[in-house]
Write a structure and sequence with these properties.
This protein has 544 residues and is of the alpha/beta class. It is 36% helix and 21% strand. The strands form 5 sheets. A 9-stranded mixed beta sheet has the order 13-12-14-15-23-22-21-18-19, with helices on both faces. A 7-stranded parallel beta sheet has the order 5-2-6-1-7-10-11, sandwiched between helices. Strands 16-17-20 form a 3-stranded mixed beta sheet, covered by helices on one side. It starts with a strand and ends with a helix. It binds glutamine. Glutamine (GLN) binds next to strand 19. The site of glutamine has 10 residues, from strand 19.
């Protein structure tokens, strides 16, 4: 019998529900269980693919090419079960499926309603990952939004029905709330009491509470919360603020025996306890020496979540190389407005010089010329440079403009009339009008050329990474690019598409058409992020 854990949040958003759910997943994996993670998103979009990174943070891409919510990125960093289309459920998908069935006449003339038709569709989707994967022991279902939101009601109702149908020992509710601190340092439990009441109004009695608080809750506060909420005192946990790293949260929960309480409630025997990977990660965190400053030159700089997996992967790279990584967020349009890059990237910049430049993925024209300037700066000043997707295309545009002397070299995404379209659309993409899910998406193989940085990083000929883009390196310029010195370091297996370019005679200048950040973990950094940070660290030390 598969076990289900429904994770909900109350009081307010941004309490770290994704991190809490993922950390619980990590602990249960540490107990030898096969854990699957599912996210329910109450928004009406079919998926996150068409949402602006400003609105909703990054779009996380899975192996099977689903464009999902960034919480799936958290799951991927904390747990190791497969993640794909079936692990991300949105209101849009649910209604789309129900309305299609209605049009096909599959409801046999009945009036189609939220209960039972929408809730049945939600329940069936929640049950799908375990149904399709016989190895599953536990499914953790995170319900997005905050209890009390109109949008999440059908998902909570589906959870209520499932808890009832599966039985209390097979399905439990874990509820995350906030314990605010008021003037004088007093911790307040009232919002938590109200939040649990809101859950009870939906017919769900939380079995476990995780309270987000500035510091560890004392025994009397936990007893008080328990008394008001019908939750056992030993099932009230604290997710206190950490000034180290979010990757410590699994161990913080472990020390409070969260996994033991959850397993007991679900009647599951733990197979073993192995949290070695998390312990060694915290050890590596503690012994980092020195700091490298990495300039991230992009266009969505105000919102940290817009490049979430990139920042996380940089941190992982730092862990692997024994250094702290300071991300320096640089809005590329600032570089467009000035010819004095020195004050933004060089030793004249606030806080000192940048030791490495990363241009992440992106869409649209704004800020592109600033990114090209950043690439040219890194190339000519021998600063390590890492281009991801758009960042690789930027390297090719810089090479066309500044090495081959084609002033108008560009991607046709930004200039349709350029005489030198060094980046352009594939034939099959030219007539695409529908923007949802029509890019080159998901995992595919890349074959590396021996003797290149990318081959050294992965240590293998064929690598598998994920894509999310529409434009490609234009093959008609391959010859001139190679003759002028640009290295083509990896291709698709049939050789038809360029997957990686590298700068010659440079400490570390590399761009890839795929997104290695999606597969990076704190317990195992992406090889390219690791080597980029190592190069930045070595350049920084050489300059001292
Ligand atoms: N806009 C570019 C393309 O569609 C790059 C996409 C990306 O960086 N993810 O090809």
């Amino acid at each position: 019998m598969n076990k289900y854990i429904f994770v909900t949040g109350g009081v307010c958003s941004s309490l770290g529900k994704g991190v809490a759910a993922s950390s619980l997943g990590a602990l249960l994996e540490g107990r030898g269980l096969n854990v699957r993670m599912v996210k329910c998103d109450p928004y009406i979009n079919m998926d996150a693919g068409t949402m602006s990174p400003y609105q909703h943070g990054e779009v996380y891409v899975t192996d099977d090419g689903a464009e999902t919510d960034l919480d799936l990125g958290n799951y991927a960093r904390f747990t190791s079960g497969p993640l794909g289309r079936a692990n991300s459920i949105t209101t849009g998908q649910v209604y789309d499926a129900v309305i299609r069935k209605e049009r096909e006449g599959r409801y046999l003339g009945r009036c189609v309603q939220v209960i039972p038709h929408i809730t049945d569709e939600i329940k069936s989707r929640i049950l799908t990952p375990a149904r399709e994967d016989a190895d599953t022991d536990v499914v953790i279902v995170e319900i997005g939004g905050t209890v009390g939101d109109i949008e999440s009601i059908p998902f909570l109702e589906a959870a209520r029905q499932l808890i009832h149908e599966l039985g209390k020992t097979n399905a439990i509710s874990v509820h995350l709330t906030l314990i605010p601190e008021v003037a004088g340092g007093e911790l307040k439990t009232k919002p938590t009491q109200h939040s649990v009441k809101a859950m009870q109004e939906q017919g769900i009695q939380p079995d476990v509470l995780i309270c987000r608080a500035p510091t560890m809750l004392d025994e009397s506060t936990r007893r008080k919360i328990a008394l008001f909420t019908n939750v056992d005192p030993d099932a009230v946990f604290t997710s206190y603020n950490v000034d180290t790293t979010i990757y410590e949260v699994p161990l913080i929960f472990f020390n409070q025996e969260l996994d033991q309480v959850v397993l007991k409630k679900l009647g599951v025997e733990s197979r073993h306890t192995d949290l070695t990977a998390w312990h060694s990660m915290t050890e590596r965190f503690a012994v980092r020496k020195g700091k490298v400053r990495i300039g991230i030159v992009g266009k969505y700089m105000e919102l940290h979540d817009a490049y979430k997996s990139v920042y996380e992967a940089l941190f992982h790279g730092g862990l692997a190389c024994g250094v702290e990584v300071e991300p320096v967020k640089i809005d590329s349009s600032r570089l467009e407005e000035t010819d004095n890059q020195e004050n933004i990237l060089g030793p004249g910049a606030p806080g000192g010089g940048i030791n490495g430049i990363l241009v992440p993925g992106g869409f649209g024209q704004r800020g592109i010329n600033g990114m090209v300037k950043a690439a040219a700066w890194a190339r000519t000043n021998r600063i390590p440079y890492f281009g991801i997707c758009l960042g690789m295309q930027i390297m090719v545009i810089d090479w066309g403009r500044n090495v081959l002397g084609w002033e108008d070299a560009d991607s046709t995404e930004f200039n349709q009339d350029t005489k030198h379209p060094v980046i352009s659309l594939l034939e099959e993409q030219v007539d695409v009008k529908n923007y949802g899910g029509t890019m080159r998406l998901g995992k595919s193989d890349t074959v590396t050329e021996p003797g290149t940085l990318i081959a050294a990083a992965y240590g293998q000929r064929t690598v598998s990474e994920r894509h999310r883009h529409r434009y490609e390196f234009s093959n008609k310029y391959r010859g001139e690019m190679i003759e002028s010195g640009l290295k083509i370091a990896a291709y698709t297996p049939d050789g038809s598409l360029v997957e990686c370019v590298e700068w010659p005679e440079h400490p570390w200048g590399l761009g890839v058409q795929f997104h290695p950040e999606f597969k990076s973990k704190p317990t195992g950094a992406s090889p390219l992020f690791r080597d980029f940070i190592a190069a930045a660290r070595d350049c920084m030390r050489a300059a001292l």
